[in-house]
Amino acid sequence: MTKLVLALVPALWVVAIAIIAVQNATPVSIQWLTFQSIEIPFGVLLAFSAAGGMIAAALVLIVLSSKGFRRPARKRN
């Protein structure tokens, strides 16, 4: 059951990004401090943001697991 849930979560994200990308094809640009990006479609920006967040979360999990931060084992009855 856990594997099914772990497969459904990214699948739902992909479907949601696809729907939002089709509905919002307007080009947008990001401005941060004095920097401004080129104009790209909102759906592409959303997809890159979601992928970047997934990669960052995976890297954090790898770093934490290599440092020995593991959950204590549950006691069995």
Kindly describe this structure:
This protein is mostly helical and 77 residues long. It has one domain (2-66). Helices cover 61% and strands 10% of the residues. It is built from two helices and four strands, in the order αββββα. It has a two-stranded antiparallel sheet. Strand 2 and strand 3 form a beta hairpin. Helix 1 packs antiparallel against helix 2 (42-66). The relative contact order is 0.10. The model has no long low-confidence stretch (mean pLDDT 83).
Topology of helices and strands:
Layout: H1 2-23, E1 27-28, E2 31-32, E3 35-36, E4 40-41, H2 42-66
Antiparallel strand pairs: 1-4, 2-3
Helix pairs in contact: 1-2
Produce a short descriptive summary.
The chain is mainly alpha-helical. It has helices spanning 2-23, 42-66; strands spanning 27-28, 31-32, 35-36, 40-41.
Describe this protein with a few key phrases.
two-stranded antiparallel ribbon; single chain; 10% strand; 61% helix
Tell me the domain tally: 1
Question: Which structural category fits the helices and strands?
Answer: mainly alpha
Mean pLDDT: 83
- DSSP helical segment count: 2
Span from first to last CA? Answer: 22 Å
What pattern of helices and strands is seen along the backbone?
A: HEEEEH
Describe the biggest sheet?
A: 2 strands, antiparallel
* Strand neighbour order, sheet with most strands: 1-4
List the uncertain runs: none
Beta percentage is 5-15%
Count of β-strands: 4
Radius of gyration: 18 Å
Helical content band: 55-70%
Shape: flat
